[in-house]
Specification:
Helices cover 64% and strands 0% of the residues. It is mostly helical and 108 residues long. The chain has a domain of 75 residues.
């Protein structure tokens, strides 16, 4: 697979991740204390907000890694694990273009 195809995959993932982050911004807005919802509903809303905030952080990390990969695409470092320096499997890069580590180093 050529680098242009990989670049397209990364750019598509960036676009999708940015869209998801916009959705999380709506979900993670503060819950106004004067909203007339019951105590249980408020607790449920706070719990859902916390879960969404965690997912938002993960999406931001993914976006940063995707941008790193995009910047590394035309360098000799692209496709090499940031930990051990070994080549990351092409299948892994295609499936998870944000992967900066090989399977062995990521599972440590």
């Amino acid at each position: 697979m050529n680098k242009q195809k990989i670049k397209e995959i990364i750019l598509n993932e960036i676009k999708e991740t940015e869209f998801i982050l916009e959705e999380f911004k709506e979900i993670t807005k503060p819950i106004a204390p004067d909203d007339s919802i019951g105590r249980i509903s408020r607790m449920d809303a706070i719990n859902n907000k916390s879960t969404a905030e965690f997912s938002e952080r993960q999406a931001k990390n993914k976006l940063n890694d995707l941008r790193t990969q995009l910047n590394r695409l035309d360098t000799n470092d692209f496709g090499k694990c940031q930990d051990c320096g070994e080549t990351i499997q092409l299948e892994r890069i295609i499936f998870m273009p944000e992967s900066l580590f090989c399977v062995n180093c990521k599972s440590k």
